[in-house]
Amino acid sequence: MNYRKLFLLFALCLLAAGSPLANAQYQMQVYGLWHCYDDACSWASVPNMTTFDSNNHWIIDRNHDNTFHPSVNVVVLSFVDPVKLMNLTNDSSTVNGIPTGMNTAVINYFQSHGIRVMMSIGGFSYISHWEKALKSNATQLGINAANAAKKFNVGMEIDYEKSSNPNLPGLQQFVSAYRSVVPYDPSGSNYAARLTIDIGDGDTYLTSLANYAVTHWLQTSNPVLDYANAMVASQNTNVTTLESGWQQHVSGNGSVPPMAPAKLTGSLWVVGNTVIPNCNNFSVSDEETAFNFVSTVQPSGSGTTAGMLGYMFWGGGCQGNGTVCTYPPNTCEAGVGTGATSFNVPTGTFALRQQ
User: Fold this and answer.
1) How much is the pLDDT for 15?
2) If DSSP states are collapsed to H, E and C, what string results for the chain?
3) Residue 22 has pLDDT above 70, yes or no
4) Closest CA to 155 of 349, 337, 308, 325
């Protein structure tokens, strides 16, 4: 059963009936892709932009007709090393703490087609580097991250995957320092102000981090971060299990308070060890199957509006670890791109739902 079409039909019926609820039709706002470039998420070399376009054209032009309707509205360049960013390292693969591949040409490639660009700091491979940076000089890391965001006109994502005893005081110093340079911006017009965090696919992983983030940074009354990404689960996780984890975030689980649906995205695999429907067959994809839940989940103690903020997909480019690269012939416009059309995903600069 196509729940998305039933939902839209219901909204149209309300409109025809003159219902005041007719204006409540769900609008997905975040539909993003983490991108790992050619080298398993290092971005350690400067791309040849002709080759880069050939490999990634499906992201900026889902119909391949030069109308440039993009397949996603957010690209997150992954990953920045926290220690190198803290130290503003310059070496063969890094300039002032940022990987050389994350340059203005790459950023403009996406931004010129209405795709917001962010950089992700950390990732699983950099847990120890997050620990070292937070212990050494968390404030300087936050200042450097904010200055890099301003320089490149991008947002930043916190990917600190420390499940046991995370350095929460240090992370608070990082966030406070970032916001001292770039304040929270509900209008969405300042790209550098977009600051997000990754938490577990449910509240049973990264529990301490989720508790702190929801309590201190993700409240609708005084937000500090823009939203949280419920991290991607195993490649073989079914939609029912994913929805159970996302519901934990919305409802809380005793250890973590409830989070407003408007402060949450759910993450899905775009490719695995083989090409999967999320990439190339929207009609049977997880993004289509889960849409009814994502678009209708009700607040349960935080927030006032129904529906999560949207989806994030892991991951574009070449992730490594035996997974498929999203380059020809394994591009994802027939899955992710068709979803962008089906969900009427907006592009460009706009305010995110705040409540």
Assistant:
1) 31
2) CCHHHHHHHHHHHHHHCCCHHHHHCCCCCEEEEEECCCCCCCCCCCCCHHHHHHHHHHHHCCCCCCCCCCCCCEEEEEEECHHHHHHCCCECCEECCEECCCCHHHHHHHHCCCCEEEEEEECHHHHHHHHHHHHHHHHHHHHHHHHHHHHHCCEEEEECCCCCCCCHHHHHHHHHHHHHHCCCCCCCCCHHHCEEEEECCCCCCCHHHHHHHHHHCCCCCCCCCCEEEECCCCCCCCHHHHHHHHHHHHHCCCCCCCCCHHHEEEEEECECCCECHHHHCHHHCHHHHCHHHHHHCCCCCCCCCCCCCEEEEEEECCCCCCCCCCCCCCCCHHHHHHHHHHCCCCCCCCCCCCC
3) no
4) 349
Instruction: Identify whether 353 is part of a domain.
Output: no
Choice between 24 and 183, residue whose per-residue pLDDT is larger = 183
Q: Residue range 223-228: average pLDDT? A: 98
Does residue 302 sit within a domain? yes
Tens digits of residue pLDDT in 141-153 = 999 999 999 999 9
Q: What residues make up the domain containing 336? A: 3-342
In a domain, 25, yes or no: yes
pLDDT in tens, 254-274: 999 999 999 999 999 999 999
The tens digit of pLDDT for each residue in 181-225 reads: 999 999 999 999 999 999 999 999 999 999 999 999 999 999 999
Closest CA relative to residue 63, chosen from 267, 274, 331? 331
CATH of the domain at 130: 3.20.20.80
- Report in angstroms the alpha-carbon separations of 319 from 77, 82, 98, 306, 354: 12, 19, 19, 33, 32
Q: What is the mean pLDDT of the chain?
A: 93
| 143 occurs within a structural domain | yes
* Domains: count for the chain: 1
Find the mean pLDDT for residues 226-231. Answer: 97
